[in-house]
């Protein structure tokens, strides 16, 4: 069975007003991350891509169900997808 992995690239455009309205670089980074996540969610929902979730806490992982387990972080063979980074799981 062949499962196609979808790769996508997201470009974030900021205007001068958005940049100048943020008081510091930390807030600017947070704003860019939120804008990225919003755009990515819209793209993913339009593609009907299903992401795996941590079997412990339920948090969405960055891996689609079609991502091979050798290319994942936090996957336990026979157990399923764990959180993709240690110290990120809310239930541990």
Write the layout of secondary structure elements.
Elements: H1 16-20, H2 25-47, E1 51-53, E2 60-64, E3 75-76, E4 80-81
Antiparallel strand pairs: 1-2, 3-4
Count of helical segments? 2
Q: Percent of residues in helical segments?
A: 25-40%
What is the molecular shape? globular
How many extended strands? 4
Question: Main sheet, how many strands, which sense, barrel?
Answer: 2 strands, antiparallel
Helix/strand-derived category reads alpha+beta
C-alpha-based Rg, rounded? 16 Å
Largest beta sheet: strand ordering: 1-2
Please trace the helix and strand order, writing H or E for each element. Answer: HHEEEE
Please describe what this structure looks like.
This protein is an alpha+beta fold and 92 residues long. The longest helix has 23 residues, at 25-47. The protein has helices at 16-20, 25-47; strands at residues 51-53, 60-64, 75-76, 80-81. The mean pLDDT is 82. A hairpin with a 6-residue loop joins strand 1 and strand 2. The protein starts with 15 loop residues before the first helix and ends in an 11-residue tail after the last strand. It has a two-stranded antiparallel sheet. Strands 3-4 form a two-stranded antiparallel ribbon.
